[in-house]
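Data deposition worksheet. Section B asks for the primary sequence of the deposited chain exactly as it was used as input, without tags or linkers unless they were present during the calculation. Section C holds the resulting structure in C-alpha cell form. Section D is free text for depositor observations; keep each observation to a single sentence. Incomplete worksheets are returned to the depositor.
Section A, Depositor: J.P.
Section B:
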Amino acid sequence: MNTDAILTKRQEQIAGLIATGHAQKEVADILGISIRTVENIMRETYKKVEVHKASELTGFYLCNFLGLDYNEIRKKIIETIVMTVVVMLSIIPNYNIRRNNIRNARTSGRYCHYSRGRRTETAYNL
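Section C:
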C-alpha cells in the first residue's frame, strides 16, 4: 500500500463513499455519473494506492482522513491478535475439562425410539 499517494478530488470523493459502505452503483447514483465511470476511477485509484480490494482502500482512506499512521494501526492490530491468542491458550485447558464433564452429564439418560408404530425406550451413556 502506498500511504503517500495523493488522490484527485473525484478519487477522494468516490473512495470516501466506498469507505462509508456505498456500493459502486449507489456512488454512481449519488454523484450523477455512470457506473462505468465509477469503475474506471476506482481502478485508477487502486493502481495509485497499490491495493486490490475495497476494504484495503477503505483502510487507506480512513487513515488519511483521520490523519493516522497505517503501519502503527497494523502493529496495534497484530499485538491485539497475539494477546488474544495467548489469553485463549491459557484458558483452553480448563475449558476442555469443564466441557467434557458437562457433556458426560448431558449425554446420560434415555431417548425414545419409534419402530413400526411401537415406542421403545433405550438408555444411553456416551
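Section D:
The first strand starts at residue 108 and ends at 115.
The longest helix spans residues 70-107.
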